[in-house]
Specification:
By secondary structure, the protein is an alpha/beta fold. The protein is 47% helix and 13% strand. It contains 20 helices and eleven strands. The protein has a nine-stranded mixed sheet, with helices on both faces. Strands 5-6 form a two-stranded antiparallel sheet. Helix 8 packs across helix 11. The longest helix has 24 residues. The two termini are 46 Å apart. The relative contact order is 0.10.
Length: 518
């Protein structure tokens, strides 16, 4: 009886999650820059970035009416967390921002308890649409710390642990075995334990690649450090990202890999007038003299250097912007950028954050319904497998079929494999395929490559032409299985557009139903 009550509660949670914001987890190895990137994405200093106890815990960031940080025990007890804000030079915010003090927690039930996770409520437009989960590094020297991330993203074994995230941003400083192994486990939805086919939990055979979060995007984090802080560091980072992308997309482990200088992105979003004035002063220093002074962060902050900025403020700039950010800011001012707002916009654009936002919008935000539905179906399958011997057993084949056949899922999987599969199509056809399956956005006119003001009849004609074109390519005698599958996916996408254009959808999930081949 207890098992049935527990299963009912889990199913109710699945239903609730469909009405909640999309859940995106930040994962990666130790010191990959997860908290810094979170601050940059939100545009506010809400996540501690120094190596304190709180960075060893899973922390949930949600939208709230007022700032509030709470600690939760494994039994559900709650305690308020004291938040402290560090100060930097000349009254500016410190480089490490907030600190969560866990030393004197007062629990609402019982005596001292072990903290299981933290929850941060913060007023934020970004968090209205997306709940962000900051996870500990997977390569921590403490196995318990790394296991917290594994339990969250790769619930394994034969239990009914539900997937906590709908999508994952995986941060990379390098690409080694630990990264590839963890990404493979995310894709398989496994975390060790008793496994069946392809490492899936026992009873989940046939669902390999379907039971983990559907959306995974790689981020080459701390991209400014790849070029040793040189002005061309992001160019080097793009080369590294392209190499990582080739290796990861070949196996479908990531849909995209984007280089981002998270430290610069956040500093740009929170640039202060006093910092801008310091950059202006540094721009008056001869290029060669400033280059010598910036051989290292320690040297740059030395009090004996004859620079027009106090050493404490120089140390603050180095901690907040990094040497790359300082060089870039000074160069932009020398090139004519004037005003703190203009400089902040230029720095933000060059940090790679806007490119990442665009990819997140296309891959995650515009497909939030599909990603959440995938998580819900995966959870239902796990619950059924964990509680066998009931009438619900008959539902499992149907759930597996939905996970395999729902067309929105097929589009996301094809987007993840498209470049790696090296389909024998001309470049223009590959571009059309990428666009048609939603690679540049899910709006009808974007998929068809038309102006947003195009009339309905023209859009219908374009969609019908796409159906015929891609079905013909799928039937080509020289098309192999991968080619035929990709072309049929594109044809089904075009058919879905025809349905929308003839009868505009009235539900938030117009493309979730499986389509039959015609």
């Amino acid at each position: 009886m207890g098992d049935r009550v527990g299963a009912r509660g889990q199913l109710e949670e699945c239903a609730r999650r469909l009405d909640e914001p999309l859940r995106v987890a930040l994962a990666g190895q130790l010191k990959a820059g997860k908290s810094t990137l979170l601050n940059a994405l939100v545009g506010q200093d809400i996540a501690p970035t120094d190596a304190t106890e709180c960075t060893r815990l899973v922390t949930w960031y949600r939208n709230g009416a007022a700032p509030r940080v709470s600690a939760y025990s494994g039994e559900g007890a709650r305690a308020d967390v004291v938040v402290r804000r560090g100060r930097g030079a000349e009254g500016l915010s410190g480089a490490h921002g907030l600190t969560f003090d866990l030393s004197a927690l007062r629990w609402n039930a019982g005596g001292p308890r072990e903290v299981d996770h933290l929850e941060v409520e913060w007023p934020s437009a970004e968090l209205e649409q997306t709940t962000i989960i900051d996870t500990p590094g997977i390569s921590s020297l403490s196995r318990d710390v790394s296991a917290r991330t594994s339990r969250l993203l790769t619930p394994g074994g034969s239990g009914a642990a539900l997937p906590s995230a709908d999508a994952v941003l995986y941060l990379l400083r390098r690409l080694d075995h630990a990264d590839v192994d963890f990404l493979e486990r995310i894709g398989a939805g496994t975390g060790g334990g008793t496994h069946g086919e392809y490492g899936a939990p026992a009873g989940m055979a046939g669902m390999a690649g379907m039971s983990g979060p559907l959306g995974v995007i790689g981020v080459v984090s701390r991209a400014d450090e790849i070029g040793a802080g040189r002005i061309d560091a992001l160019h080097s980072a793009r080369d590294v990202a392209a190499r990582f992308a080739g290796e990861l997309e070949r196996t479908g482990l990531c849909q995209s890999v984007i280089p981002v200088a998270g430290l610069l992105a956040f500093a740009a979003a929170t640039l202060r007038q006093r910092e801008y004035a310091a950059f202006e002063a540094l721009a008056t220093v001869p290029v060669e003299d400033l280059s010598v002074a910036m051989l290292s962060a320690d040297r740059f902050a030395r009090p004996d250097l004859p620079l027009p900025v106090p050493p404490e403020l120089r140390a603050h700039l180095a901690a907040r912007f990094g040497l790359f950010g300082i060089r870039l800011a000074v160069t932009l001012i020398r090139l004519g950028v004037r005003g703190s707002q203009a400089l902040a916009a230029e720095l933000g654009q060059r940090s790679g954050l806007e490119e990442l936002r665009t990819v997140l919008d296309v891959q995650f935000a515009q497909r939030a319904g599909e990603l959440k539905a995938h998580s819900a179906l995966t959870a239902v399958a796990r619950i059924i497998v964990a509680h066998p011997g009931t009438a619900a057993d008959a539902l499992l084949p149907r759930v597996k079929t939905l996970l395999a056949d729902v067309h929105g899922f097929a589009e996301l999987r094809l987007l993840g494999h498209l470049r790696a599969d090296e389909l024998p199509l001309p470049a223009t056809d590959l571009t059309e395929l990428h666009r048609l399956i939603g690679g540049t956005g899910v709006a009808t006119h974007l998929r068809l490559g038309l102006s947003p003001h195009t009339d309905l009849n023209t859009q219908r004609d374009a969609a019908m032409a796409a159906v015929h074109t891609w079905r013909a390519r799928a039937r080509h005698p020289l098309a192999d299985q991968a080619m035929s599958h990709a072309c049929l996916t594109a044809a089904r996408s075009a058919e879905g557009l025809l349905e929308i254009l003839h009868e505009p959808p009235t539900t938030p999930f117009p493309a979730l139903g499986p389509r039959r081949m015609r």
